[in-house]
Specification:
- The radius of gyration is 35 Å and the shape is rod-shaped.
- The chain starts with 24 loop residues before the first helix and ends in a 5-residue tail after the last helix.
- The chain has helices spanning 25-28, 73-87, 168-176, 180-189, 203-217; strands spanning 35-48, 55-63, 66-70, 99-105, 109-110, 113-114, 117-122, 130-134, 142-146.
- The chain contains five helices and nine strands, in the order αβββαββββββααα.
- The chain has two domains: 9-152, no CATH class; 168-217, no CATH class.
- The chain has a five-stranded antiparallel β-sheet with strand order 3-2-1-4-7.
- 24% of the residues lie in helices and 25% in strands.
Length: 222
């Protein structure tokens, strides 16, 4: 079950309050981000034709933990393009076990009337947008871009700063209570590079040299 479903029946579209075996546009109408579902299987069912009576065969897509979706031609083409991008195959069964992002599209028309409907919008498994051209007889082709749900990525991850290692001479000075400025004076007097210009690999020799100078310059207590 999707977390974006309304918490109470009072928050639902009226059409969604009537139980149905299949997903309907009204089920997703209040889901701002749509739903992410995992395909569990495919089947063909005979259903009543609401236009001319009789029965038609319709493909349905089953999902884990959710009612199935009756597949129309547009969503079938979108799933084909999505499957090719994710699995490298246009075989329908290759998408079983993969995730699909479904959204409510208020622009969907039926018999020339805008009624809204469910659209395949992409998948969390996409790493780049995918353009799918939808061409129906007698209609102008339309290109639909399938995407990864943008909220899954969040803000761009910032690299964790790595603290700069303390110079070995400064660490030695801090440990023994020496003033770094005084150590720099000794180094300059001895015609040696200051601590900031001293390569760390030369630190042991510099520390030994400074220790000797500090010992000889320390007055003897009477």
């Amino acid at each position: 079950m999707n977390d974006d479903q309304p918490a109470t029946i009072a928050d639902q579209d009226w059409d969604a309050t009537v139980p149905s075996r299949f997903l309907r546009a009204a089920d997703l109408a209040s889901a701002e981000r749509g739903w992410i579902v995992r395909i569990a299987g495919l089947s063909v069912e005979r259903m009543r034709n609401p236009r001319g009576g009789g029965q038609d065969e319709k493909t349905t897509v089953q999902f884990d933990g959710e009612r199935p979706l009756v597949l129309n031609k547009t969503n079938a083409k979108l799933l084909r393009g999505l499957g090719q991008a994710i699995t490298g195959s246009t075989i329908a069964g290759a998408m079983i076990g993969h995730e699909v992002w479904l959204c409510h599209d208020p622009r969907v028309t039926v018999d020339g009337k805008t009624v809204g409907g469910i659209r395949v919008a992409g998948s969390p498994e996409l790493r780049a947008p995918v353009d799918v051209t939808i061409a129906h007889p007698g209609r102008r082709p339309v290109t639909v871009t399938l995407r990864r749900p943008p909220w899954l990525d969040g803000p761009a991850a910032q690299p964790v700063p790595v603290p700069e290692a303390e110079h070995p001479v400064l660490a030695w000075a801090r440990e023994h209570g020496h003033d770094p400025a005084h150590l720099d004076e000794l180094l300059v007097a001895g015609k040696k590079p200051t601590i900031g210009n001293l390569p760390p690999k030369h630190a042991p020799a510099a520390i030994a040299w400074l220790a000797e100078r500090l010992t000889t310059s320390t007055p003897t207590q009477e």
